[in-house]
Design a protein that fits this description.
- The chain is mainly β.
- The chain has 2 domains: about 290 residues, Tachylectin-2, Chain A (5 Propeller); about 150 residues, Jelly Rolls.
- It contains 2 helices and 34 strands.
- A hairpin with a 2-residue loop joins strand 30 and strand 31.
- The longest helix is centred in the N-terminal third of the chain and has 8 residues.
- The chain is globular.
- The protein starts with 9 loop residues before the first helix and ends in an 8-residue tail after the last strand.
- The structure holds beta-D-fructofuranose.
- The site of beta-D-fructofuranose (FRU) has 12 residues, from strand 1, strand 5, strand 9 and strand 13.
Amino acid sequence: MTNVSQTKTEDYYQERYRPHIHFTPEKMWMNDPNGLVYYEEEYHLFYQYHPDGKEWGPMHWGHAVSDDLFHWRHLPIALFPDEHGTIFSGSVVVDWKDSSGFFDGGHGLVALFTHHKEGLQQQSVAYSGDNGRTWLKYEENPVIKNPGRADFRDPKVFWHKESSRWVMVLATGRSVMLYQSVNLRDWSFLQEVGDGWDVTEGIWECPDLFPLQHKQSGETKWILQIDVNDGAYAGGSGGIYFIGEFDGKSYTLDHNPQDFKWMDYGKDFYAAQSFSDHPQEGKERIMIAWMSNWQYANVVPTDPWRSAMSLPRQLELHRIEGEEVLVQTPVCQLDEICSKKTTEKARLVAAGESWRVTTAELPLRWQVILDLTENKRTRLEFFKSEGHSPFQFVIDTEHEVVFVSRKANEQEPFSNHYPVEVKLPESIKLNGILDLDIIVDRSSVEVYMDSGKFTITNLVLPETDVHEAIVLKQEKGTVYGVESVVSALTQTLKRV
Ligand code: FRU
C-alpha cells in the first residue's frame, strides 16, 4: 500500500488522479469553461487558463476541440492578455450572417469576454475566421465600458430569433444585466435582473440564459442559471437556476425568487456554461462545469495540472409531480464510448450482505434501480481500501434521508473544506423505486439520481490504493436491485 508520507512525483498523481474521461489541461491551472460552441462538426471548449502556474494567475483562454465531447484535442492558447488586461470568462457564438462584418459576408466565431485590468472589468470582442485556430481582437475594445460596478463580468451571448438581436447576460454583483446588439460590437442596456432578490449569500458569477422546450407542455421557458460564490448547497461555490419568460427585452420569473433550485448538490460543480449552436438547441441543452470549488481549488493535490471539467450533461425541462425541474443526464455520447455492458442483473441484498460492483476498472458507469420498499439503510462506499472509504452515500429509508460524506484520511486534509457531510433535500423520493446513474473516474464521483432530478458531483481524492470502486452495503432491511449497466469505457480514452 502506498503511504501518504511517501514523496509524491508527477507519476504518482498521473496514475492516481488524472481523469480518463473528464477534460483536464495537459499542465498548469484551469478554471471556468468558456466559449462552449458547436461549429462545423466540432465542439469547442475554451477555458480560464494560467499557463505559468498551478494557481490562479493572469488569465488566458486555453482551447480544445472534440468530435464527441469525450476525445479532446489540445490546441494552442486562443486568447492572451493585452493592453486592456487579462482575459476573464466569456462565451463564443457563431455569427452565421456576418452581422459583425468581421467575416467578409461569410461566417465565423465571435468571442465576448471580460477584460480585467487592475480591478476594472469591461467587455471585449475577438473573432476567428478559421474555426477558432487563430483570433483577432477587435480594435475598438472594450465594447461595453464599466459603468462604475466592482463586479461586471462573464458575458454569455445568444441569438434571440424572435427579435433578431444578440442578447448578453452579465454578472453584476448580486444581479445580472442584460444587453442587446445587432452587430456584436455596439451594445445597449436592457434590464437589471435579480437586484434585491436576496436569494443566496455570495457574489453571482458566470450567468447563462437559454430557452428550453417544456417536455410535457411543449411551451418554451427561459432558464436563468447563475453561479454563486459562497453559500452553495454543499458549501463554497455552486450553481442555482430560475425558470421564467424572456421576450427579447425583459426577463420575468414564473415563481418567487426564493423558489430557485440548485444545479447540483455536490461540492464540485461550478461556473457551468451551456453550448451555443448545439444541433438540439431549444429541446435540450448541453452543459459543462468546472469540477472544483473556490474554497480549495488552488490547493487540490494534483501535478502537473490542476482542475478538471465535469462530464458534459444534457438538460431537459420537465414537470415532475407538479413541479418544474431541470432533469440532467450524462450526454448520450457516453453510451457510445462504453466498451463493456452487462445484461440486466437482479439481486436481493439482505441486511449484513454486500453487493460489489463487478469491475474495479475505471472509468466505471453503474446504472442501478433500487427497490426500497423493504429497505431501512443502505450504504454505498466508493474507492474503498482497507478500512477506509473516502466517499460514501447513505440512503436511510427509515428516516427518509440521504447523506453524502467525503472524508480525508487520518492525515491532515489539504483543506478543511474538503471533508464534508451533506444531507440531500427531503424531496428525494425514498418510499419506492430509486434509480442511480453513477460515473466513477479517477478522482471524481458523479451521481445522477431520481431520473436526473438530483445530481451530486464531487472530487474524491483517495490517498491510499483503492481496492474496490463501489460497494453497496446493506445495513438494515433488504434492498432489491436491478443493475442495467456496468461499463468500463473504451481504451482510446484510457490514460496510463
Ligand atoms: C468564476 C470567475 C469568473 C471570472 C473568472 C476569473 O470562477 O471568478 O467570475 O471571470 O473566474 O478566472
